[in-house]
Structure formats: structure tokens, C-alpha cells
Specification:
The complex is a heterotrimer of chains A (about 350), B (about 325) and C (about 200). In chain A, about 30% of the residues lie in helices and about 20% in strands. By secondary structure, chain A is α+β, with helices and mostly antiparallel strands. Chain A has one domain. A seven-stranded antiparallel beta sheet of chain A has the order 1-8-9-10-6-7-2. Chain A is globular. Chain B is an alpha/beta fold and about 325 residues long. Chain B has three domains: about 100 residues, Translation factors (Elongation Factor Tu (Ef-tu), domain 3); about 110 residues, Rossmann fold (3-Layer(aba) Sandwich); about 90 residues, Ubiquitin-like (UB roll) (Roll), CATH 3.10.20.30. Helix content of chain B is about 20%, strand content about 35%. Chain B contains seven helices and 19 strands. In chain B, strands 1, 2, 3, 4, 5, 6 and 7 form a seven-stranded antiparallel beta sheet that branches. Chain B has a five-stranded parallel beta sheet with strand order 10-9-8-11-12, with helices on both faces. In chain B, strand 13 and strand 14 form a beta hairpin. With about 200 residues, chain C is α/β, with parallel strands linked by helices. Helix content of chain C is about 25%, strand content about 30%. Chain C is built from four helices and ten strands. In chain C, the strands form two sheets. In chain C, strands 3-2-1-4-5 form a five-stranded parallel beta sheet. In chain C, strands 7-6-10-9-8 form a five-stranded mixed beta sheet, covered by helices on one side. In chain C, a hairpin with a 4-residue loop joins strand 9 and strand 10. In chain C, helix 1 packs parallel to helix 2 and helix 3 packs parallel to helix 4. Classes of the chains: A alpha+beta (about 350), B alpha/beta (about 325), C alpha/beta (about 200). At the A-C interface, helix 5, helix 6 and helix 8 of A face strand 9 and strand 10 of C.
Chain lengths: ~350, ~325, ~200
Amino acid sequence: MNMAFKQETLRDDYTFSNSPESVRRFPFPFDEDEYMYSVNIEPHDAGPPGSVFEHAIDIDEHYLTECEERRIVLEDDHGRYVALPHMMDAQWDMVELVMTNLAKDYPESFQLTQDGDNWHWVNQPLGIDQKFVFGDTSTLPMEPFEFISRQVQGDWVIMDQRDEDLFADLGIVTGQADWSMAFDAGMSFKEWHAPVPHAPEMGIFDRALKYLLHLQYGSPVRRTNWRMCVNPRLDTSSEKWHLWGPDNVSVTAENVAEKVYLRVELQALFRLPRSNAIAFSIRTYMVSLEDLAKYPRWIKRLYRVLTSLHPDLAEYKGLNSYLPYVLNWLKPQDDGEVLPKGTQPE
Amino acid sequence: MSLLNVKVTAVEQITEQVKQFTFELEDGGKLPYFSGGSHVVVAMDIDGRIHRNAYSLMGPTSDNERYTIAVRKQEQSRGGSVFMHEQVKPGTRLQITPPTNLFAINKLAKKHILVAGGIGITPFMSQISDLNRLGYPYELHYAYRSADQAAFRDQLEKLCGDKVHFYVDDEGRRMNFTELLIQQPLGSHIYVCGPNTMVNSLVLMAKQMGWPDNAVHSEKFLAPATGEPFVVSLSLSETEVMVPGEMSMLEALEEAGIDAPYLCRGGACGRCELEVVDCDGELIHHDVYLSDAEKISANKIMPCVSRANCSRMVVNL
Amino acid sequence: MEKGYSIKSKPIYGTLVWQDHAMHHVVIAEGEGGKALLKLFQQKLPREPLSVLYLAADPQAEKYATTVQKIINEPVTIKDSQAELLNALKATLDSCYMGTQFYVAGTEGFIWKVAAVLRDAGVDDKNVFKELCGSLGRRLYCVHCKTTNENVHHNIHVCTGCGRHLIVREHFSRLMGAYMGFMIDAEVPGEIPAAEEIYP
């Protein structure tokens, strides 16, 4: 892929925008006209060239933008990075996972040379050239997981497996949808997901946990989740709610199409080899309603999903303040055509 | 499930009954790293039938060039270990699954107490390589029948130094579980792998001495039980499969080309669980995964080790 | 509150009951937890070695302390500050082995401070018996400024760290021993419902 990395902002003046190709590859999450929270896990197999599923770890035109955003967030609050002491093997597993995948899938941007434990990593877009000894923390400028997670898009939570459960014991979470890694650190799988309405009593997390405890090395899985947000603000953390909360009431009939974004999390889960931990990547894609409307199939389906959404989910996803504007804008675009199942744009 | 194609590069006689096998990837590439306590499932072609057995990887965990396993020859078994001992030679090609860990150490433990009986030493070989590397406190207690059955004793003395203790049955040196469990520091975890009777009595003793359940870890590899033949009817794929008396239900499904899930093949992990829609006889549960209540309710089965006394069983597959 | 709706991260506390298989019992209580202690000793006086640590910082608690000492006829460690009690607990842990059962009774804040000391010693809080006694006041972690507010009795609380009005989210961290608080009027500044005392 010949990739031109853009340099945009995800805060203040919000220069973030999607190219037409970027809109087209957007992982639209709704394959039917109705949505309810479900496990919806599938194998994380390679998808068609150009799609967000082509590679295990997707790098796109916003790579530099998101790495810079992560740097800004961490400089302001290093508590977005959590590393409990028993997770050092998992930290190195992550170095291997990210470096080997990026070097294999994007060789024009990333190069890795391995000579036993002597590794040489080159990240051209970020101008990083680092020789280090795998397993020896003193040969890197910071903890191994922090080092590599500053060079990859998406939030990551690494879960330790013990006691028939998974614990959120390592993570870098700077672009999340209203939760806090600092607060959720060390939580079990079900504690961590406790605030999701209705999913626990539907047994969603019992089933997901049972499945994940048996996740196999070499057979990663994925699912999507979604929200909406006002402005292309990646950092809609609980920590910064006081900063982005006011945006929710800034939506008007005039600005709704450009200001409101559908925000999709491509969640992929990988079993890590040395630590037996599970890496949970949460990669967020944002597309404005205006851009989404380039594909009538998507915009019609979005309207139907939002009109049939359970009120508790609407509340949980934080849509209530501006949902009426969104629905008013979408409504005239839905002619009632029967849409076949599937998430494709056309 | 993705499988690894390996070739056997070395076979070593460890004791009269135990052989060690070394595998490398057929194409010469690197194997996945793994964590201490992991196992792989080895697929063997025995007279045209695919037979699968789980074996612990012996480590060291830092080696991604080769895997080693140790197999004890079980004359009375259904042929897997006999096949490994008699048919598998350097150069033999086999398929194995990627490593899976159902017997991992708890990294929050303050101390790890490892207890092995006989061939149950194998998962600890790789755990020790992790414990040594991480510098975690541990002790290993290893019991075997007689001096000539002391598999890997020399290796363990080198790896563990004064942390290993040997117990030789016919020399009258028996393991005393009470002594083992008493006055262990807070935060200790105990891990046991060996014959059923040993595992069961240690687990019971730990409970009686106030150890919390989640500090006691055990691994038993159950062999699939044989029994009467019966027919499994698959409601989703609308197929019927005959399960012969000497084959497990899972093996029969696999032989019929059904892609049924599995991990431990020992009735412990729960991955192969099937929903029983109907059964005109009685389910015979041999697994340790389902609760007693679930076993009585008779609507779930672990086909890797459990079967039925019936003519026909309908499962949701 | 919504009917039938529960948050899975919220701990559920029980009633202290002796664990029959324990080789040693360590009972830690504060204030109104003294009553839970008395209830426990009404069940029986265990045969196994016993350590009792009690935080008595008010006259009622001192009364419980006196009664407890009378009925168990063994030395009870009594302290009048939390810091001293937790130090005494750390000292006690040096002579504890696997097979020790821990029991805690007191306010939620106290229970999780004890649990943190035990966790450092390798004791999983799942295996600690806990009884909630006395005030229902909560510890509240401000997700914005990271201050932990003690003894929060109202559903809306002014953060002592940043002055924001926080609403108590029903989401509990065992590591922090606190609920999450977040700003109630972020969307429309000043739009703050009346606070109600629901954790008396």
C-alpha cells in the first residue's frame, strides 16, 4: 500500500478528515436494521486488500495523527498507561506482536531485524531507530509496552488469565469511549464490563469470557462495537468528560451532519505466547454523518438502527442530548427500501 | 484450528517406560513461544484412524527452535502412547496444535509449590524454566516408584538446585501432604500433576487445611473411556455418526469429518461442550468440568471423555 | 433505582461465619463492626489459634471492645487509629501461614483498606470474609482530578480536590476501594439536581 500519512488534530481545531478511500473502508457495524448488544465474535482472519481487516493490526492515513494524539494525552496524564508488575512478560509479548506484524504488513514503513535477542526496530514515519535486547528493559528508553504502544493506533488492554478469569492488568487507553483505564485497572472481566446495560443479565459476558479463556495462540478473533461522538475527538475518556461533555449540547439542525460522527471500535483479541495473557485491541474509526451519507445503504440502515435502539443503550452510549437532531437529519434519507443483510457500503 | 506440521528430530529413551521426543517445524521455521505448563495435541495416524493425545511441552520456554514432550508407554491404553513408542522415529512427520495453557502459574503468588507424581513431572519442566527466569520463589516435590523410574532427575537437580525434593516409593520415602501444606507462607499456590489418587488426596488435604480453592491447581489427563457403541445425531448439520465402543465421541465426530471444537481432550477445559437435545438412554460423564448439577440435568456433554449408554443421542452441532 | 438492575462490579457483603477448616483465624473490625464480632463469637469460640484486632475510636466502640475481651478471654489488639490498626495487622501477618482465614467487619472504606494490606501479603480478597457494618458512606474517586473523597453520604458530592460536583457511578474498583465519581453538569454547567443523602 502506498500510504500518505496525514498530520491532523483530534482536539481544539479538529483538522481531522477522512479521504474518500478512508470512508469507503470504514468498518460499518450494522448488518441488520436492528441492533442489540451481542457477543458477535468472529475469527480475525485476513480480509480483502484495502479493507481494515486486511492485516492483523491496521495502520491507516491517520497513523501520525493518532500517535501524536497519544503523546499529547500521556504528557498531560500518564495515568492513561497502567502496568501492574506481574505483566512484564506480557509487555514483551506486545513488543513482538506489534513489531513483527507491522514489519511484515507494512515493510515500506517499518523494519525489524532479529538476531537472537538482539533486535533492531526502524519506524520510518515516526523517525525511530532503536536497537535493543529483547527481554532486557534497560535497553529501551521506557517500559517495553509503553515504547511500542506509542507507535501503534488504537487502545490496548492486556488481560492476565488466572482463576478462570481475565484481569485488566496492563493497558494504554487514550482514545476511549467514556471509561477509565486508571479506574478499571486490575478488574476482572465482568467487573470491568459491569456498566454495560442489560448485557450482563443476558449472559453476554459469561459467554464471551468462557470463549476468551479458551482463545488459542495463532487464532485471533474480533468483534465491532460502536458509539457516536460530537467532533472527531478521539479522547472521549471519562477523565476528560468535563471537556467533551459540553460538545454534546453544541449540536444543531444546521451542524449535525458535519459535527456528529459514527464511531466504530474494531476490537481484536490475540492470545499472547509467553505470558498466556490476552491482548485486547480497541481500534477506533470515526466518520461524520456527512461522509457516511455518500453511501445511501449505510445512512438508511443507521436511521433504522437508531430509531429502534433501546433507550438504555442510547443513554449508555451517551446519545441522548443530540439524538433527535441526528434522527431528523437521517429521516428524509430513508426511502424504506428493503436492505439485504450485510455491512458493505454498496 | 491452525495446525503445525512438525518432524521428529530426536527420540530418547529416558526410562524403561518413558521416551522423549523432539519436534521441529517441517519447513525449518520458528515455533511459537509458549508459557510454562502448556501442552500440545499430537495427531497420530494409527492404521488410517486419526488419534489425538495431549502432551505437556517440557521447555525451556525460551526455545522456539524445537519442542520436547515425554510420553509414558501405557500398555493398557488405546494405542496413542504405544504408537508414539513403537512407530515414531527421527524423521517421522506429525501434526500438532499450537500450545495451549490450561495449567499456568498464578503470577500473583508469593510462592509456588509444585507437586509431581511419575510422568506428571512433564508440565513442571517448562514451568520451572519460567519460574527460574522470573526469579519467583518455588519448591518442587517429585515422587516416583523406584530409582530406575526417576525420569529427568539429573536435569532437575541442575535446574532447581536445592529447591527440588525427591520421594522414592520403593525406598519408603513417601510424600507427606500435611507436611507439605503446613506453614507455607501466605500467598502460596500449590500445583499438582500426577495419578488421580494423588491429585485427589492432595486437593482434599489442602481444603481440610484451610487452603482456598483458587490457590490449589491440578492437572489430570483423563483418557477417554471406552464403552458401548451408540449413534450421535447432529441436529444442525443433519448427520448421524456411529460412535464405536473403543472410540470417544469426539474422535468419532472428527473421523466423520465434523469440525468439532476441542482443547484439552481430557474433560477439563470445557471447550468441546455439546448441548444434548435428546438421549434415549443414560449419559456417562467422565469429565471434571461440568458441575454435579449439570451432569444430573443431562443436557450437556463433554464428548472428549464422556459417552452414553443409549442407542441414539441428539446433539446441537 | 431501576428494578432488577444490578452492577456486577459492586461487592456483595455477607455475614461473618467461621470457616471450619481454617488453621488460624484473624478477625479485624472497626466501630460498629464490633457488633459483628460479638455475633461471630456467639456462634462459637473456635478451637484454633485466634487473633482479634479492633479499631475503637469512640465510646460505643470501646464498650464493644470491653465485651469482646470478656467473652473470648484472650488478648485482643485494640487501637484507636486506623493507621495503627493496619500496622498491627501487618505485624500479625508475619506469623500467618496458608490456612489462615481472615474476617473483616466495618465500613466499606475500612474493609477495602484491610483488603489492600492483605492483598500485598498475597491474600486474594475473594477469600476474605466481609461484613458491612456502620455507616454506608462511600469512598468516591474523582475520575477528573484523581482525588479519593472519604465518607461520601450524598449521591452528588463536591470533590475536595477539584470542586466539581460529582455523581456517584455504581461502578466499584476493589484495588482503589472506591466508586467512580464524574462531573454531573459537564453538558450544561450549573444544571445540578439536589443532592440526596442515600448512603447514610
